[in-house]
Design goal:
The protein contains 6 helices and 5 strands; from the N terminus they run αααααββββαβ. With 179 residues, the chain is α+β, with helices and mostly antiparallel strands. It folds into 2 domains: 73 residues, no CATH class; 97 residues, no CATH class. Helix 2 packs antiparallel against helix 4.
Length: 179
C-alpha cells in the first residue's frame, strides 16, 4: 500500500507482483516452484490474496478516474506492463541467484495487444558479459549492478539460522554487462 500512496500505477504493479508470487506469476511462469507451507500459512496467504485483489480493483477505479492514467489502463496495457515487470524481475533474479548459465524468459511483451510477446534468452559469453536475444534495448550494451550478500551454500536447519547467516554475510557489488 505504500507504493499505492506514492503512485497508484506503481501500487497496481506492486500489487500484481505480490499476488503473482502465490500463483506462478499469474500463470506466466509455470516452472516456478512453490515452497510448501503449513495450514496456518495457507490461510494467511489466501487472506492476503483476497485483500490484494480488493486493493487491485480499488486502484483500477482510481486510475480510470484519473486523467493522467485513464488512457493507460486498458486490460491489455496493464497486463503488458505487468509482464514486463516480471521479465525484468526474472532476469535480475537469474543473474543474481542462478549464476551465469543459459536461461530463457517467456512472455516478454513486444507491444500492448494480446499475444504480442516473445521469449528473451540469456547466454553467458566468454568475456563475462551476458547476451540477450532478442536484445530489447536501444543501447548496444550496458552495465547493471546490484549489492549482493555472500551466504555460504549449505543446508540451513532453520529459517532463523539462514537469516543470521544472511545478515552477517559480506556485502558485495555484483556487476553484469548486458549485450
Amino acid at each position: 500500500t505504500l507504493a499505492a500512496e506514492e503512485d497508484p500505477y506503481e501500487g497496481l504493479m506492486v500489487n500484481m507482483h505480490g499476488r503473482g508470487l502465490y500463483n506462478k506469476r499469474h500463470r506466466t511462469d509455470l516452472a516456478m516452484k512453490r515452497v510448501p507451507i503449513g495450514r496456518e500459512e495457507k490461510v494467511a496467504v489466501n487472506r492476503l490474496v483476497r485483500e490484494s485483489e480488493r486493493l487491485r480493483k480499488r486502484l483500477m477505479k482510481r486510475l480510470v478516474a484519473d486523467s493522467r492514467y485513464k488512457n493507460l489502463v486498458s486490460d491489455d496495457q496493464v497486463w503488458a506492463n505487468y509482464c514486463l515487470l516480471q521479465a525484468f524481475d526474472r532476469i535480475s533474479l537469474h543473474l543474481c541467484w542462478k549464476g551465469l548459465i543459459p536461461y530463457g524468459v517467456q512472455h516478454v511483451p513486444t507491444g500492448y495487444r494480446k499475444g504480442e510477446e516473445t521469449s528473451v534468452n540469456l547466454t553467458p559469453e566468454s568475456d563475462g558479459s551476458v547476451r540477450l536475444s532478442p536484445y530489447p534495448f536501444k543501447q548496444s550494451q550496458f552495465e547493471v549492478s546490484v549489492t549482493g550478500c555472500l551466504v555460504p551454500m549449505k543446508k540451513y536447519e532453520t529459517d532463523e539460522e539462514y537469516r543470521e547467516s544472511y545478515y552477517r554475510g559480506e556485502r558485495v557489488e555484483l556487476k553484469f554487462r548486458l549485450t
